[in-house]
Write a structure and sequence with these properties.
The complex is a heterodimer of chains A (305) and B (327).
Chain A: H1 3-34, H2 41-59, H3 62-83, H4 93-115, E1 131-134, E2 138-141, H5 142-164, H6 166-176, H7 178-183, H8 188-211, H9 221-235, H10 240-266, H11 271-296
Antiparallel strand pairs in A: 1-2
Chain B: H1 3-25, H2 28-53, H3 62-81, H4 98-120, H5 126-145, E1 155-156, H6 171-194, H7 196-206, H8 208-213, H9 218-244, E2 246-247, H10 254-267, H11 274-292, H12 296-310, H13 314-320
The chains are: A mainly alpha (305), B mainly alpha (327).
């Protein structure tokens, strides 16, 4: 395999990882602060993608589409937090899994009812389409590069928000001791709604960004949701840094596995068999990675033991 | 407490009565629905062993359901194409005999549950939920991308497998098989939950430290429970595949895991008949709501939300009271 192809695949892996980070950051924040497993996070991703595709179709503006995705997902997140999620904080994980599974059913079918079963399409805007030439003569799609840029910006913003701002201090304090900060006069239920809506907005943004590469359809959220869970479990639940490291690790493993494993097996197997064994192993590779990490470190790379 | 055994008997006999009524009215579709209830309830009884008695929230029981299904699919497809499964070192041929398929399905899913359990039980809480989910996805993608047995399209079996002395193509006879197996599994569950093993398992769920202090290792209890649970769910998978005469990677999907969990919760966690009531209500809802609207999953979701938020202890808990659980 040539070096150029390898670097291209590395970039694809990073781009995938950055997108997973947008999903995983919200999940891990929500788990870290509220102790809630939110299976419906994939639905918020889907809502973001549908809102973006719909607004882009009406207005033709990609920027407006992104804003719509953030707003729609944040609004949906705040709505379910106020009506359902709020009642689940002091329940056990089983109830949380079930209730958010029910939310998935409602959101998926509701979207199918509104938009139909056919996929929608979101166009990459002209100023972001086409390839760009990187140092070393590598041609790479500008849009994917832009996703990496947006993702890294969001990551930096999130770290700054958590580490430097007043609301970040409250979030960290809420993680450590919820009763205490309530006693100090912080409106804890408003804080929870804000954190949930923030996580939802990030998921919606991820959905809109990916919606322009893939098709926008019902059920698009769940595969990504499960990968995002793998990410936060590898990184350690509740840790944003863990989510970033885990996301890049999963993105690279998945992308490189798909390219490299069939090639590796082709060295000592018939091509037909090598490609089928290689591709089935590649699609299992991240789950093997996760099982491996958990066996070594049962609470993830950056988790509190 | 008094009401629950009565309710259980009513549910168990009610299922039989529904089938006899359908037989008299000549409505084979109703018999098929009842057979689905029995099989899915069996899968739920398996999960209930881990989830209800052991407190192990597994979101990966589709693995065992799927392994059972594929055990049936692989054996029967080799039998129907007359090609041996393995020629070397020993010749192993496919089979169309249900008892043999069941044994293979139970052994395979039991082994898988031992392996998955041995790794997953090192973790707890959310990590356990996630790692079981990840194992489920692992098997799902493996089934999709492994071309030998149909890949994404799955495997069709032309004729239902045979059981000595019965005509399994007759809906009511196949129902009888599933009904008897469900009864046996329920009997096993009730015996287990009152045995020393079951009591220790329940104690480990409520307070693992105390159980360790009296010299019992929770890990081994849980592993045995998880493996047994996998065996029962695997058997249900083999029966489900035989009912549809079709297996596909969907059996491994995480939605399947979620649905099996829904049966248990809807009926009532740790209740003997929880999965039976849950599966019956689920199938009824699917049938009734599916007739009303194409988008029946919305209503299903709403019903589920109401049960989780307001009717803790599930439907059985609602009818028979909550005295049974003490934690």
């Amino acid at each position: 395999m040539s070096l150029i192809l390898f670097i291209e695949q590395m970039l694809n892996g990073v781009q995938f990882g950055v997108m997973l980070f947008l999903m995983a950051a919200g999940l891990t924040l929500i788990f870290g602060v509220m102790g809630l497993i939110n299976l419906a996070h994939g639905s918020l991703y889907m809502i973001g993608a549908f809102a973006a595709a719909w607004v882009a179709g009406m207005s033709g503006s990609f920027v407006l589409a992104l804003i719509a995705s953030l707003a729609a997902a944040a609004a949906a997140g705040a709505l379910i937090e106020l009506t359902v999620i709020r009642r689940l904080y002091d329940r056990d994980h089983l109830d949380q899994v079930l209730a958010t599974f029910a939310l998935i059913l409602i959101f998926s079918e509701g979207t199918r009812w509104l938009f139909g079963s056919f996929p929608l399409f979101l166009e990459i805007p002209p100023y972001l389409s086409g390839p760009v030439t990187l140092p070393g003569g590598i041609e790479y799609p500008l849009y994917r590069l832009a996703i990496i840029g947006v993702g890294l910006l969001v990551a930096a913003g999130l770290f700054a928000l958590i580490a430097r701002t007043r609301i970040g201090i409250q979030i960290r304090a809420g993680e450590a001791d919820r009763e205490m900060i309530a006693a100090l006069g912080v409106n804890i239920s408003a804080l929870y709604t804000i954190v949930f809506a923030l996580g939802a907005a990030l998921a919606g943004l991820a959905g809109a960004l990916i919606g322009a590469i893939q098709s926008v359809q019902v059920g698009m959220g769940e595969p990504v949701l499960i990968l995002a869970f793998v990410v936060i479990v590898i990184g350690g639940i509740g840790s944003i840094k863990g989510a970033l490291v885990g996301a890049i690790l999963v993105g690279l493993t998945d992308t490189l596995g798909r390219v490299l494993l069939p090639a590796v097996f082709a060295q000592f197997m018939a091509p037909q068999a090598a490609s089928s064994v290689g591709s089935s192993l590649a699609s299992m590779s991240i789950y093997i990675l996760m099982a491996g990490v958990l066996v070594m470190r049962p609470s993830g790379l950056f988790g509190k033991a | 407490m008094r009401r629950e055994p009565l309710l259980n008997a009513a549910v168990f006999l009610g299922l039989l009565a529904a089938v006899l009524w359908a037989k008299a009215m000549d409505e084979p579709f109703t018999i098929t629905l009842a057979t689905r209830v029995a099989i899915l309830a069996l899968a739920g009884v398996g999960l209930n062993l881990a989830l209800g008695l052991g407190g192990l929230v597994s979101l990966g029981h589709a693995v065992f359901f799927g392994i059972g299904g594929y055990a049936m699919g692989i054996l029967a497809s080799h039998a129907q194409s007359y090609s041996p499964l393995i020629e070397w070192p020993v010749l192993i041929e496919g089979t169309k005999s249900m008892p043999v398929i069941w044994l293979v399905a139970m052994a395979a899913s039991g082994l898988a549950a031992l392996g998955i359990g041995a790794l997953s039980l090192r973790t707890s809480g959310v990590y356990f939920i996630m790692i079981t989910l990840a194992f489920g996805q692992m098997f799902y993608y493996f089934a999709i991308s492994w071309p030998a047995y149909g890949g994404e399209d799955g495997l069709s079996i032309y004729v239902r497998n045979g059981f000595p002395g019965l005509n399994t193509l007759d809906p009511i006879q196949f129902f009888a098989i599933c009904y008897v197996i469900l009864g046996l599994a329920l009997w096993l569950f009730s015996r287990l939950s009152r045995s020393a093993f079951g009591l220790a398992l329940g104690a480990a769920r409520q307070n693992a430290e105390r159980v360790m202090a009296v010299g019992i290792a929770p890990y081994r209890l849980r592993l045995v429970a998880f493996a047994l649970s996998g065996v029962i769910t695997g058997l249900a998978g083999a029966l489900f595949a035989d009912l549809n005469r079709f297996v596909s990677p969907t059996m491994f999907s995480w939605q399947t895991s979620g649905e099996i969990m829904v049966f248990v919760i809807l009926g009532g966690v740790a209740r003997l008949f929880g999965p039976v009531v849950g599966a019956a209500v689920f199938i009824l809802l699917e049938h009734v709501l599916g007739g009303l609207s194409e988008f029946w999953h919305i209503y299903l979701g709403a019903v589920l939300l109401v049960v989780v938020l307001f009717a803790r202890g599930g439907i059985i808990g609602l009818i028979a009271g909550r005295e049974v659980r003490h934690d």
